Amino acid sequence: MEYTSLYRRFRPRRFSEVRGQEHVVAALQNAVREGRVLHAYLLSGPRGTGKTTAARILAKALNCTGEATDGEPCCSCDSCEAIDAGTSFDLHELDAASNNKVDDIRDLLSKVALGTPGRTKVYLLDEVHMLTAGAENALLKTLEEPPDHVVFVLATTEPHKVVETIRSRSQHLELNLLGAEDLESLVRDVVVEAGLDVDDAGVHHAVRAGRGSARDALSALDRVVAGGITDDDTSVDELLRALSERDPGRALGALAAGIARGREPRVTGEALLGALREAFLVSMGVPPSQLVAADRERAERFAEEAPPAVITHALEALGTALVDMRRSPDPRVDLEVALVRLTGPEVSGSGGSGSLDELTRRVEALEAALASASDRSVVRGPAAPPPPPPPPLSRRSGPAAEGRARLTPATPSPPMATEAAPAEPPASPTESDALPVAAAPPAAVPSRDELVMAWGDDLMDRLSRKARARFSAARFIDVQDGTAVMALPNEPHLRRCEDLRGELENVLAARFGGSLPVRLVVDDGSPAPTQTPAAKPRPIAVDESMVADESIDLDDLVDADVAEGSAVDRLTQAFPGAALVEPD
Predict the structure, then answer these.
(1) Average of pLDDT values for 135-154?
(2) CA angle 357, 363, 369 (to 5 degrees)
(3) Rounded mean pLDDT of the chain?
(4) Cα separations (Å) of 76 from 30, 66, 79, 552?
(5) What are the pLDDT digits (tens) for 208-244?
(6) Lowest-confidence region among 20-34, 108-122, 348-362, 430-444
(7) How far apart, in Å, are the Cα atoms of 459 and each of 435, 494, 503, 516?
């Protein structure tokens, strides 16, 4: 006797036997009962959810010759039995995946107008999204206005690939995946009705393998009956424990054990990815309805041990590894590297940038290093003398400058650093500031020598890269009334440094334990004055000869001496033999 697969033997024969698709059953059954059957239906949903089954039940209900009640077929008349056996002329099934060309659809449409023994001819086009563009166009007109005795039922697993012109000509009904409870009830009913010897572990395995698909669940039940069940959860459970405990050795051992049992690395990776997804949904408060009780408990347990950020990072790492495994010469390597990264101590909840505890330890280490550096600077002996000042700016020279000097002599004055007013208001401390400014001034204001020593020691290293570049040519020249005076080569340089003065004050505050304002001045190259309480920089006298737009008194100018002849005579004497050419 030929054995028939369980999903074929226990295919629903009436609308009432269809599980988990109440909305689709109600729409079709009400249409048959009330005589409002449309000319075209589009059934979409995942595999094994009942699309073909619903179309066959509809064909039986429309052609039933027995005592059909409430829109249900009797399933005992010749028409119903012929449809169940696949020998009826009232139901024509066409696989659009293999018959997807224009000629195939034209051949089908040429037979649409022909009559059949029953009242209604039903055309079932499976995987209709596989039709070519020409075949879709050939189907449109007949699909919109078929003969009165013809009903089209289109089935697809990818409704988004069906063109809008076909969807608009049919009534779209979506079938859903079955929940774990409906699927378990179906499997247990089949076990009882078929007289199978299957324990709870086998039932749970079939439900887990079904993943919401009735056909996949019954196919898995066939494997259980045949003795082909394998414990697929051992490796996944071990890998989840390794992730929660961050044990690389345990993770690699679980993967090796799964491979030794014959499981491909990609299969193990996909199973682990599915378990992590279930845990992620549980942690977000959306438990998958297709999970059995054991899987739901495992997901809840892992969600309690690992925060959502860790699960998200694991999903990203495993997804990348599975993509890389497709073109890898040894897929095990990609999965092993991903597991080591996920279970290593450097793995964080934020995708690798450091966990909260790790960041806290790093901040504490930095604070301790700053405190130690401050203590060393207090007890350190005399430091090396400060570096020599930068060379002074050279004044403009030349005949023009000398001429201006003769016209307007300047009163000599000893050169000193002149304080330059900032061209724009000081910028507020930016995000590059190293440390917050202390509110109170330091207990003892540092002297100029202390500032110079600290500047050459470690103050420059505490500044940002941008600030170090701008202040590299600066030097401390004085301390006046609790304010540090810093000299810069020129006024444009001063304006550029003014934007980062806040960061410099922050570093000084952290170094000396209190607020120490800084005033920037222009440096003329003179040596810094000896530190005295009353020492103040004197303003430099501006040389009027350096002013570009100075005024000249014309009365002071004298005529040139022409005793030796005119300019033309001098040129003729300088070039013997030259002749003066008069213009035309």
Answers:
(1) 91
(2) 135
(3) 78
(4) 21, 7, 8, 124
(5) 888 889 999 999 898 888 876 655 567 888 898 888 8
(6) 430-444
(7) 13, 19, 11, 14
* Two tokens, residue 402: 């000398």
For β-strands 121-126 and 150-156, DSSP reports them as parallel
The more confidently predicted of residues 445 and 43 is: 43
Q: What is the largest CA-CA distance in the chain?
A: 144
Cα-Cα-Cα-Cα dihedral sign, residues 560, 561, 562, 567: negative
Residue 498 makes CB contacts below 8 A (sequence gap 6+) with 422, 423, 424, 426, 427, 520
pLDDT single digits (tens) 258-275: 888 878 888 889 889 988
Q: Which of 6-34 are b and which e, b meaning 16 or more Cβ less than 10 Å from the residue's Cβ?
A: bbeebbbbbbeebbbbeebbeebbebbee
Return the residue matching tokens 């505890």: 357
Amino acid (one-letter) located at 208? R
Give the separation between CA 367 and CA 434, rounded to whole angstroms.
Answer: 12
Identify the residue whose tokens are 């696989």.
95
Check if the beta carbon of residue 568 is closer than 8 Å to that of residue 580. yes
Q: How far apart are CA 437 and CA 451, in angstroms?
A: 17
b/e 220-249 (16+ beta carbons within 10 angstroms → b): bbeebbeeebeebbebbebbbbbbbebbbe
Residue 60 buriedness (CB in 10 A; 0-12 / 13-18 / 19+): buried
Strands 475-480 and 483-488: antiparallel
**DSSP labels, 121-190:** EEEEEETGGG--HHHHHHHHHHHHS--TTEEEEEEES-GGGS-HHHHTTSEEEE--PPPHHHHHHHHHHH
CB 458 within 8 A of CB 446: no
Task: Say if residue 537's pLDDT is above 50.
Answer: no
CA-CA-CA-CA torsion sign (478, 480, 486, 490):
negative
- Sort 404 into a burial class: Cβ within 10 Å, 0-12 / 13-18 / 19+: buried
Interatomic CA distance for residues 519 and 484, integer angstroms: 6
- Residue whose entry in the numeric block shows the structure tokens 């074929």: 8
